[in-house]
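Researcher: Quick sanity check before group meeting.
Model: Go ahead. Protein one:
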Amino acid sequence: MKDKKRFLTTFAGICLAVSLTTSFAGCGSKDDGEVAGSPSQNQGDEEKDSSSTEGKLISSNNKKYSTLQEYLDAQKAQIDTMLKQYEDSGMTMEIKVDGETLVYRYIYDEQVDVTQGMLDYFDSSIDGFRQQFDTVIDEISRQVDVKEPAVQLLYENPDGSLIYSCVLTKDDETPTYGEISEGSILNNGEKFADVAEYVAAQKDQIDALLKQMEGSGMTMQIYGEENTLVYRYIYEEAVEVSDENAALLESSLEASRAQFEMIIDEMETLVDASDLAVKVVYENPDGTVIYSTTFTK
């Protein structure tokens, strides 16, 4: 099973990239309004107060930061806080600057076999999150005196070998790939018998993901149920079961439909089952269901 166990860590890496980019875009927001996906206005006001003297205002073009490194340095406290939230996630991370490119570098704690399915998954995931990355590039353009801002996502094994890299600019993306492993699951045809077996093989990664939920106001379970991968969220305090709350959850999940469909794509590669699906359930402590939905292809 070891050759087949990396999906959830890979998916966590993609989600982490988006989490960091959308939060990071908000870190630089100033007087002219919030960026989509940025922190609340109150938090923005606090950041405005704490960073009002950071950076060098360039009078010729009204940009706050003269270089991307200066922009990054101004966000150090926020970045350190965000990265700390993802300790024990199965990888280490750093955010750095390479010229006019903001680089998100992810290094897995354990060696990952590079398969064509994994590379295809990275490609489709990046495409699904494209709008969020464009937001970061827009924010850099607005704040920093750069001509061709870009974002690079770089995924590596512990030995330094490349798994996946993608450089994104406002109008283009350039992916590069690690060497596909010989004898990988996609080459030898072996699959998990069902979704439960597939989930069981990811225990360490799931435990790390669940640990991140601590202090969030809810607990989470991930398990297989026949041909369905179930994400079950249980609130620590009762939430009113109402059409309004159900509509809010429905809207939030619908915005993430592309990500759930990518999970189904990956399961179709790794699991020997048909009609695969992802189910998301929100419950109160007494077991009453607040909202539930099932995603299929």
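Researcher: Fine. The other one?
Model: Protein two, sequence then structure:
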Amino acid sequence: MENLTAEMRAGVLVEALPYLQEYYGKIVVVKYGGNAMIHEELQQAVIRDIVLLNLVGIKVVLVHGGGPEIAELLNKIGKESKFVKGLRYTDEETMDVVQMVLCGKVNKNLVTLLKNAGGKGVGLSGMDGGLFEAVRLTDEDGTEYGMVGDVVKVNPQIVLDVLEKGYIPVISSIAAGIDCNKNYNVNADTAAEKIAIALKAKKLILLTDVCGLMRDPADETSLIPQVKVSEAPALKRAGIIKGGMIPKVECCVEAVRQGVERANIQDGRVPHSILIELLTDKGVGTMFS
């Protein structure tokens, strides 16, 4: 940015104007995790993006995971991380760790980072105000995930109240169980999808560790910039949507089908990728519409 002339800086703002007008007063849900969360420089870029959007009148809701931090604490207490079909197997001891890390350390650190960048964050969990109601996740084939929840209802009023006051909600992906008196670990992508639908968000952004959906995962030039939700089943049958990309794509497809205008899978390792996607002609990642 230091090399930009005053005219170039003005040009950047002019290019952003129609997008600022389009998103003004609208809700954007950002799921945040992975490398973008644990590398300080990327973390600062994400936080500044969110604060800037908030200051220009775009209502940002930040939903976060915390896999690396959970794994670190489990390792300290000598407990091995176990995954089933890409989801963390969560026994009761692991659930205690997940709740401590997500609702405590990670959530409050993000609120502090927002404050330090000039923003106003409010930390929430899925239990606050009955935001997320869940039952134990079960598969038809009988796969066991432990205390992993399937969100069956979202009560978004507490988030709307926080947004109305000009604050940035920071939501950890824990849900209250309605089938038992326990809390559940919820996949953060799924939590972001559910809250985006309930809030009638204009945009859902899933930050991840790849540039988006690619025809060849080893070749970033094979990025598919746009996918219509009707095209997703064929891409899955062709083996283009596979592995860890399957649940992310399913979240985006379901969000769009349920009324979210657009959903994005994009690279959280790219500094300011949120601003590039929302406020420039170029965009970034794969957009589902």
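Researcher: One line on it for the slide.
Model: The chain has a mean pLDDT of 92.
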